[in-house]
Each structure stands twice: as C-alpha cells, then as structure tokens.
Design goal:
It is a single chain. With 246 residues, the protein is α+β, with helices and mostly antiparallel strands. It folds into two domains: 56 residues; 183 residues, no CATH class. The protein has three helices and twelve strands, in the order αβααβββββββββββ. The longest helix is centred in the first third of the chain and has 54 residues.
Length: 246
C-alpha cells in the first residue's frame, strides 16, 4: 500500500513538475513569439519610415548629352551640321565681314514650360578686349546664362560652384541670376579642366524654388562645354543631392 501511495505521490510530483515545466516552456515560447513579433513590427515600421522618406522625393531627371566646341576654322564650320553662331550662314557666305566670336546662346527648357531656363556659350575674350590678352592666356571663356532660374555661386564673383556628387543642394549659399563664368583663363572658373562636375540650380516658381543640378564638363582650354544631364526636385523648396536621379 505504501509503495502504491509512494508511486502515486511520485507520479503526482512528476506531473506537477511537468505542468510547471510545461508552463514555463509555454511562457518562454510565448515571450519569444512576442519578442519576434516586436522585432518584426520594429523592422516593418523602420522600413516603412524609410520608404516614406525616400518616396517623398519627386525627382525629375533627363539626359541631354550635348557638346559644343568653339571652332574658329570657317571651313570646318561650313562642313559641320551643328551651327556655332547665330549668324554663321552669313559669315560663311561672306555677307558679314567678321569673325566667329561666340558659339551663340545654347539654351535649354528644363521643365517643359516652353520658356528657356538657362543657356551656355563660349566666347572669345580677345574680341571684347581692345588691349588683347597675353598670348600665354586662353582667350576663351565658357559662360552660363540664367533666365528663369538661379545658379549657386558661393564665390560671389560670378564663378559658380563646381559641386561633387552627393553635395546637398538647398537654400543655403549664395544664389544668383547673373551671367556667370564656369571656365576662363588663369584658372578662373571652377569647372575648367576639373572633369564632370555639378552646377547647382534652382528654378523660380512664384515665391518658391525647385532645387536641382546640371552635370557639366568644361575642357582645360575652355573650347568645349558638354551638358550631360540634369535633375530637380519637383517639390517646392525641397533639397536634392548632386547626382540624385530618384
């Protein structure tokens, strides 16, 4: 009888321990599930926040890939399909007795409103300098001509910033609507011979601005300007990174 009772007692204790152990395992498992759920929620929440932040940028991007070269040789100009002066036909035909002094304004409408926003030109400074420049100087200059936008010029001397990729373009800095030089003699102009760089721009939209960039290449001797591509944030007064396309 005692053995039976002992067996029953041991069995009851074992059952009790098993219940306690099972309860603890269940509690641990439940806590583990709760923890995994919490981690999952945090990950989803974090991902959602990132998606919302990135999705808030409405970037317009377009490629241009136009290159303009200042050409003095009229025979070479005559054989080219690309006009390099507003009066080139008259110059080639001899109707105007003059020299090519400029590529003319190569203008671009960046936002599709049928109004040109800015232009670029290469000019021969010797033609505008009665004292002539020293022969050691490059006499050419590459200019940007803002019309319905402004360019970032922290030099404040008419030499716009040549920005690196990922530079943050926003309201900070000095913005100007003036004609500016991106490359000229004696190293003036911050794009001259620096490879592909970014020009900070902001399109004027009433009292607001659309911030953007244009990727440019200006040759060492200022005889070539390449307009590669551009982008701008379609949301008013929102920043954009140089080179950002989406």
């Amino acid at each position: 009888m005692e053995k039976v009772v002992l067996f029953k007692t041991v069995k009851n204790i074992a059952n009790a321990k098993t219940k306690i152990l099972s309860g603890r395992i269940f509690e641990i498992y439940r806590n583990l599930i709760d923890f995994k759920y919490l981690v999952f929620v945090l990950i989803i929440g974090f991902a959602s926040c990132n998606k919302t932040e990135n999705g808030s940028d409405k970037i317009f991007y377009a490629a241009i890939n136009k290159e303009y070269v200042f050409q003095r040789d009229l025979k070479a100009i005559a054989s080219s399909r690309e006009p390099v002066s507003m009066h080139i036909d008259s110059i080639i035909s001899g109707l105007i007795n003059t020299e090519v002094v400029s590529t003319g304004n190569k203008s671009f409408d960046l936002n599709g409103d049928n109004v040109w926003d800015l232009g670029f030109e290469i000019i021969d400074l010797n033609k505008f300098n009665i004292n002539k420049l020293p022969l050691s100087f490059d006499s050419l200059a590459v200019r940007v001509l803002p019309n319905s936008l402004q360019v970032l010029d922290n030099s404040t001397y008419g030499y716009p910033d040549a920005l690196d990729s990922a530079y943050q373009i926003n309201s900070s800095g000095n913005w100007t609507s003036n004609q500016s030089v991106i490359g000229t003699f004696t190293g003036a102009g911050q794009f001259k011979g620096k490879g592909e760089k970014y020009l900070g721009i902001r399109l004027i939209q009433g009292s607001s601005y659309l911030y953007g960039w244009i990727k440019l290449f200006c040759s060492e001797h200022n005889d070539t300007i390449r307009i590669i591509d551009y982008a701008y944030n379609q949301q008013s007064n929102k920043l954009i990174m140089a080179g950002q396309k989406e």
